[in-house]
Amino acid sequence: MNKLSALVTAELRKVVATRSTWLLVALAGVCCAAFVTLEVVLYDVAVVSVYSMAGQGYVVAMIVGILVVAGEYRHRTMTWAFLVTPRRSRVITAKLLACGVVGLAIGVLAAAVTVPLALILLSMEDGPLFAPGVPLALLGTIGGTGLWCVFGASVAALVRNQTAAVAVALVWTLYAEWFLVMLVPAVGRWAPSGAARAATGWTRAELPVPGELLPMWAGAVVFLAYTVVLAALARTTTRRDVT
Amino acid sequence: MISVTALSKSFGSVRAVHDLTFEVAPGTVTGFLGPNGAGKTTTLRMILGLVRPDAGTALIGGTRYTDLESPVTKVGAVLESTAFHPGRTGRLHLETLCLAAGIPDRRVGEVLTEVDLLAAADRRVGGYSLGMRQRLALASALLGDPAVLVLDEPANGLDPEGIHWLRGYLRAHATTGRTVLVSSHTLTELSLMADDVLVVSEGRLVAELPAGPDLEDEYLTAIRSSR
Ligand SMILES: Nc1ncnc2c1ncn2[C@@H]1O[C@H](COP(=O)(O)OP(=O)(O)O)[C@@H](O)[C@H]1O
Ligand SMILES: [Mg+2]
């Protein structure tokens, strides 16, 4: 039986060698820079919320995860993986683990863009530069970004079709779910996006509709649970014929 | 040795393979001949554990592909519609296969030389011709130095020189006591390449013929009488 660590390394080599990965990573940095600027300029928000914009690479991380899995079906390269490793759940496990690593890397990079920019922007305002909750919030953004990548990969393993997976994931997380978070927070805070956002330390103080997200730790636990369930489902969907 | 016993597979109402039984002996090149839609690809994919049979078994040396320890070191497969990521180089494709399968990296250079693809190894596969992809597929199959080769229409896209080379390669491979099963819908190709030819039509085995000058007549007779 080939080692799982070798399968994960092989996946990582493929991700690193793919050009679209790097375009998306750059996009994650741009997203974070844009959101942290908007957060400071448009709203009068808590310092922790400003730093929590380091989590705004999550959409990109999710798409990278989708491409890692759905791309293999799209290009029919999954066949090679299944020939090497006939126990298909292992192939999926390796991909999900690789996505965890990639997602964490995107999270670290996003934080590396966000923190200096936040310091610069906040120093131009009157308020404080820093708050005790910031390190934990950054930990939440990095861990959350890692999970989003696994989340995306799991969605792709279930949907298989790349375009459909990207469309479903984007519409659901950016629109459907975000409406819930914004307008029906009692429900939205339990949805993946709401929980994941809570884990970044962001608060919805500036929103017109009152209501709280889950506490940070609870958000982290709930989003982790969503990801684990989805990943477990993804591992069971590999019985179909590969023709 | 490959043994297929009472293998059947339907896709919805289409009976792709129906109660198919045959054996492929080591030391020979065995052709798998039949018109388009005869069930060749489905059979080969069942042998390789990619398609789940409705009934019957397909064993390689007495073991199902999916139960083989380190399968790519025992069976090499060139499949009809496998493809490559267009953005990755041929070398990266082979290196990641080696990594995943626990095969030493030096095999990459060896198989690239064997299939004469070394010069293009560092180019993106998106720019490869069909023949070059076919060579890369064969290189992938050879990585684990397997004793059994299963090839689905491997001559598709190869130029005459490539086909000549493939024929010689498979011959030499079989002569060292290895097992080769190669499908084609083209009779002349197999009559030059194979020792024995299994003829399938509509998912059933209709004849087992020795390759040779009479193959065409015997093939036509077998196909017609099966209808
Ligand atoms: N995934 C599939 N879904 C539905 N029908 C299929 C599928 N794969 C093969 N078939 C059908 O099964 C039959 C045998 O196909 P195939 O094994 O590809 O034949 P060959 O390789 O000999 O041309 C054909 O009628 C084909 O249309
Ligand atoms: Mg075919």
UniProtKB/TrEMBL annotation, chain A:
Keyword annotations from UniProtKB, A to Z: Membrane, Transmembrane, Transmembrane helix
Taxonomy, superkingdom: Bacteria
Chain ranges passing through the membrane: 21-43, 55-73, 94-122, 134-159, 166-187, 214-234
Protein name (Swiss-Prot/TrEMBL): ABC transporter permease subunit
Organism: Actinophytocola gossypii
From TrEMBL, chain B:
Superkingdom per UniProt: Bacteria
Pfam families linked to this entry: ABC_tran (PF00005)
PANTHER family assigned: ABC TRANSPORTER, ATP-BINDING PROTEIN
Protein name: ATP-binding cassette domain-containing protein
GO-annotated molecular function: ATP binding
SUPFAM superfamilies tied to this protein: P-loop containing nucleoside triphosphate hydrolases
Keywords carried by this UniProt record: ATP-binding, Nucleotide-binding, Transport
Family: Belongs to the ABC transporter superfamily.
Residue stretches making up the ABC transporter domain: 2-227
Organism, scientific name: Actinophytocola gossypii
